[in-house]
Design goal:
Radius of gyration: 14 Å
Structural class: alpha+beta
Number of strands: 4
Order of helices and strands: HEHHEEE
Helix content: 25-40%
Length: 81
């Protein structure tokens, strides 16, 4: 399932959670690809473990400064365990 979370409204957020919860009840293993805003919110409200099994984030370990042509260690941390 591919979902573009451009519209950050409570209705869209709850709809995404509902879809993922439905898939989890069917015993699918779910990985969220990207989704910084959505993942951060589910971590805050404690629903992450019930909705998905992992996160694939392209820049989990690295952050880029394209103006200075440098990269560094990513500070943001995701931990579902």
């Amino acid at each position: 399932m591919v979902v573009d979370y451009r519209y950050h409204t409570p209705e869209v957020y709850q709809s995404l959670k509902s879809m993922l919860a439905s898939l989890k009840r069917q015993e699918f293993k779910l990985i969220v690809n990207g989704g910084d805003v959505f993942v951060s919110e589910t971590l805050k409200d404690g629903s992450a473990k019930k909705l998905y099994d992992g996160v694939n984030q392209e820049d989990v370990f690295t952050t880029y400064d394209f103006n200075k042509k440098k990269y560094d260690r990513q500070i943001k941390k995701y931990e579902l365990l």
